[in-house]
Hints:
Blueprint: H1 3-18, H2 20-40, H3 46-81, H4 87-97, H5 109-139
Helix pairs in contact: 1-3, 1-5, 2-3, 2-5, 3-5
Amino acid sequence: MNEPDRALCAATAHLLRAAGAMAACGLALGLIAVAVLALTGRSLSLLSCMGFGAVAVIGVLERYLAQRVRLEAGLFEGLAGGGIASLGALDGALERLGLRFAANAPRQLDDRVVLARQLMQRHATAVACQAAMFLLALLTQDLR
């Protein structure tokens, strides 16, 4: 890998690491929703319970996406720092771990950066959905 590619990998890794704040928000929303349901579920309206339940269910997807973003950030850091020598070596390691199929065509670095950004955007969408459902649940908790 040349110097501009390593710089792109480092910038992508930093961008993905910055999404960690979003992951913390998603985790907090999910945990608060579960706590509210566990502690006050019987006194809430049905709509509010469904809202907090949706936040918890979306939280499972959010946690998966957050872990994927973290993995991608680590892989890009490895490419940037030289811990992973090449894209071919990365593909080989992912195949041995069972995270990539051998039949898949090799991807270029630009394609990987685009896919990592799309993954980060999907994660942000999951957190936004959690926040919207949490707000809906809060606004409807007094309805009977």
